[in-house]
Amino acid sequence: MRNLILILGDQLNSDSAAFDGFDPSLDAVWMAEVAQESLKVWSSKPRIAFFLSVMRHFSGLLRDRGWAVFYRELSGSGGEWQGPSGPPVLCNAESFRAALAEFTGRLKPEKWIMVEPGEWSVRSEITDAATAAGIPLELREDRHFLCTHTQFEAHAEGRKQLRMEFFYREMRQRYAVLMDKGKPEGGAWNFDSENRKSFGKGGPPLHFPPRRFEPDVITKRVIALVNERFAGHPGDLSLFEWPVTAEDAQLALDDFIAHRLSEFGDWQDAMWTSEPWLFHSRLSAVMNVKLLDPRRVIAAAENEWKQGRAPLAGVEGFIRQILGWREYVRGIYWLSMPGYVELNALGADQPLPPFYWTGDTEMVCLADALKQTLQLGYAHHIQRLMVTGLYALMFGVRPREVHSWYLAVYVDAVEWVELPNTLGMSQHADGGLMASKPYIATGKYIQRMSNYCSGCRYDPAESTGSTACPFTTLYWDFLLQHEPAMRMNQRMSMQVRNLARLDDIKREAIKDQAAQLRSGAGKCSSTV
After folding, report:
1. Architecture of 354-519 per CATH?
2. What CATH number does domain 3-140 carry, 3.10.20.600, 3.90.800.10, 3.40.50.620, 3.40.50.80?
3. Half-sphere CA count of 100, side-chain side, radius 13 A
4. Mean pLDDT, the chain, as a whole number?
5. Helices 504-519 and 470-481: angle between axes, nearest 10 degrees
6. Angle, vertex CA 20, rays to CA 17 and CA 21, nearest 5
7. Is the previous residue joined to 399 through a cis bond, with omega within 30 degrees of 0?
């Protein structure tokens, strides 16, 4: 064997740079399901099932090309290699490094080739494995993304502060997206102020739910395996209906463009009980495993505006999440690792509340977002930032525990995108590298953007007392704890000034109530 092409579970684009120069008569593909990837964090069943299913479908696509594919499948207890011919070979290795060592020892390829991994620890693990095996490793640039590491480093060089908005403008200009003669379409770079509507008492307008993808034979086998092998993991697979092939991913994009993009902008921040999907695309998972090219998504959205079928504000808001935010967080990740994961700028020291793994809490907003997350492996960005993330931030949960939870439960979670969004944007643990201020709010924000509070026993207007909303209590306690640091942040000045209307008695009452919440005395969950 000349080259062994290593393909990871988030590298499933058939035009990958890893395949450049592939010769079916000389080269082969290596893919492996290793239990370690589901155990590094307590991965939910939907997340495990999604990754295993997309990998198995992709290996079948490569075999249909007539390529030699060596694929290691997990089983109920261990695993076995499925080669191009011959019976399966048992394999007990549970890590990439061990699986590679066992496999390479038998077939002795001259070189390993792969696209750069999306996770720092995996890149280190495979690099170390190559060194230990004495085999050259060729890492190729991942051209799925629109900004290379070198380009992001050039953007960051010499800047005192990094801000997504300026990076996003550069990307718009570089790729001529929503541009007219060098200027932004509509005369503005950002229409975010127009994309913050709430549904009001009437609830969401009639809308098409995302297209469902019924599990095929491969996915059904995966579901059975996950229910057996990972029975103790959180989550539920009874409603698993994710797209798991490139064809499915394209159908999911077509469905979003046709049925929800036109109203996405208006309602992208709104929440409603038992409405997990609303007007969102549900495309991040298939993009993050590279079954769907972001260029195709951006072009489809821009074309809808050009054809007059979707408003500019909504299309710009959607494109900003992909061309701007998605590329920006990847740049931050690789610029800041490996130390980034250890950051804790606010000194948070609380454990993650147990109800994050069950949804068993009296707070309706958290119960809805958590149970939906555990069942579907999905929550939209405001549920993540301003419900589950907001509570963890103000409660003072250790950032690494919050990171581990987000990485474990969401189907679209790959560390390069999840870690900066969680540790930086949501928890402000990087001290402002990702976001210029901590995103904190009282329960009144959740009341304005959802119907959660109408069915909750807590009052978002109250910070103390038996009916006080824990979000409101923790909001004021957060400001009291971090007042000196927040005074130094211009974007927090108004919120800090509002502390002046709290007298000493009120301040102490808030601190006491927050302490009760943290000790478990506050009745926000039946599990504490």
Report:
1. Orthogonal Bundle (1.10)
2. 3.40.50.620
3. 27
4. 93
5. 110
6. 160
7. no
Query: What does the alpha-carbon distance between residue 405 and residue 369 come to, in Å, rounded to a whole number?
Result: 14
Half-sphere exposure at residue 342, Cβ-oriented, CA atoms within 13 angstroms: 3
All CATH 1.25.40.80 domain ranges of the chain, comma separated, are 149-210+260-336
Give 507-525 pLDDT, tens digit per residue. Answer: 999 999 999 999 984 445 4
pLDDT digits (tens, 9 = 90+) for 396-433: 999 999 999 999 999 999 999 999 999 999 999 999 99
Nearest to 400 by CA among 434, 438, 351: 351
Type of residue numbered 465: G
Task: Answer whether residue 25 shows pLDDT above 80.
Answer: yes
What backbone torsions phi and psi does residue 406 show, to the nearest 5 degrees?
A: -65, -40
Per the DSSP assignment, residues forming a β-bridge with 115 are: 140
**In angstroms, rounded to a whole number, what is the distance separating the alpha carbons of residues 195 and 314?**
7
CB 271 within 8 A of CB 450: yes
**Looking at residue 198, what is its pLDDT?**
94
**Spatial contact of 94 and 36, defined as CB atoms under 8 Å apart:** yes
Determine contact, residues 34/12, Cβ cutoff 8 Å. no
Give the Cα separation of 36 and 79 in Å (integer): 12
Residues 6+ apart with CB under 8 A from 401: 351, 352
Mean pLDDT of 175-204: 93
Write down the number of H helices and E strands in the chain: 23, 9
Alpha-carbon gap, residue 267 to 314, rounded angstroms: 9
Fold of 149-210+260-336: 1.25.40
Residues in Cβ contact with 107 at an 8 Å cutoff, skipping those fewer than 6 apart: 1, 4, 28, 70
pLDDT of residue 367: 97
DSSP readout, 313-348? HHHHHHHIIIIIIIHHHHHHHHHHTTGGGG--TT--
Tell me how far apart the 2 most distant CA atoms of the chain are, in Å.
79
Give CATH 1.10.579.10 domain extents, the chain.
354-519
What is the structure's pLDDT at 155?
97
Residue 112's DSSP bridge partners are 4, 137
